[in-house]
Amino acid sequence: RTVYVNGEYLPENEAKVSIFDRAFLMADGVYEVTSVLDGKLIDFAGHANRLARSLSELDIPTPPEFDDLLEIHRKLVAENGVNEGMVYLQITRGAPGDRDFAFPPKDTRPTVVLFTQNKPGLADNPQAKVGIKVISIEDIRWGRRDIKTVQLLYPSMGKMMAKKAGCDDAWLVEDGFVTEGTSNNTYIVKGGKIITRNLSNDILHGITRAAVLKFAKEAQMEVEERPFTIEEAKQADEAFFTSASAFVMPVVEIDGAAIGGGKVGSVAPRLREIYLEESR
Ligand code: PDD
């Protein structure tokens, strides 16, 4: 595999990042995951814009030019022959050479790393036909989840708690309301209405979320953006989540309670189909 590090395209085993990198020492970096279908990037502009916002919120200087980023993404996809999969991009505050809580000087070069992952069968994921199971856990992450930082330890632990419970993912709950999944935005459907948490600093502003809500409204489906509880989710007709790597994924069980009789409903598969069709 060819990867990209700070202006260079290299074989993955030759790519190097400093041990003093701020992301390594302090999780001081942001990332994006853009999916690839039929060799083409999905929603690149959305991801590039969110990246620029994440960098600006953290005062990490000089975001790369949109066109340069697009070129790097395309080059890696072509070079690595990715037909279905994803491009991972990470930008950190760089490696100033010493460990210090204070940010390094503004002219410290940010570290830019990109690699691809091949995921054949991504669009035809058989899990989308049967749905997945989730548990709920307390959301103890920091208060700026709108910034896509690489501080993923708790989401990673949540994923492991889910696996230990024989489930696939965890839905995070704060003050009694679901914020989001470990790495996705969450939804329920009741009486045909799609309910998902409103945007704020409490959740990541999903690029897939924005696209799916737009397509839902275009298809005359009713959308309500507000927080919901696990109890309400258990009483819902359907539940699902969205992300760049899973698109639209039905959820058929929450904390052991079957949703919609434990079977995939009609709204989530329809949104998945529309999303895959419209964004390709
Ligand atoms: N995760 N919420 C969280 C906490 C996320 O980490 C993600 C994405 C989303 C969905 O955002 P989008 O639709 O823009 O992918 C919501 C990526 C896919 C990941 O960490 O792999």
Automatic annotation (TrEMBL):
Q: Which cofactor does it need?
A: pyridoxal 5'-phosphate
List cellular component terms (GO). Answer: cytosol
Instruction: Please state what class of enzyme this protein is.
Output: transferase
Q: Which GO terms describe its molecular function?
A: L-isoleucine-2-oxoglutarate transaminase activity; L-leucine-2-oxoglutarate transaminase activity; L-valine-2-oxoglutarate transaminase activity
Keywords associated with the record: Amino-acid biosynthesis, Aminotransferase, Branched-chain amino acid biosynthesis, Pyridoxal phosphate, Transferase
Biological process annotations from GO? amino acid biosynthetic process; branched-chain amino acid biosynthetic process
Q: What is catalysed by this protein? A: L-leucine + 2-oxoglutarate = 4-methyl-2-oxopentanoate + L-glutamate; L-isoleucine + 2-oxoglutarate = (S)-3-methyl-2-oxopentanoate + L-glutamate; L-valine + 2-oxoglutarate = 3-methyl-2-oxobutanoate + L-glutamate
The catalytic activity of this protein is classed by the Enzyme Commission as 2.6.1.42
Q: Tell me the superkingdom of the source.
A: Bacteria
Pathway of action = Amino-acid biosynthesis; L-leucine biosynthesis; L-leucine from 3-methyl-2-oxobutanoate: step 4/4; Amino-acid biosynthesis; L-valine biosynthesis; L-valine from pyruvate: step 4/4; Amino-acid biosynthesis; L-isoleucine biosynthesis; L-isoleucine from 2-oxobutanoate: step 4/4
Gene3D superfamilies in the cross-refs: 3.30.470.10, D-amino Acid Aminotransferase, subunit A, domain 2 (3.20.10.10)
Family indicated by similarity:
Belongs to the class-IV pyridoxal-phosphate-dependent aminotransferase family.
What the protein does comes down to:
Acts on leucine, isoleucine and valine.
**Protein name, entry field:** Probable branched-chain-amino-acid aminotransferase
Name its species. Answer: Thalassobius vesicularis
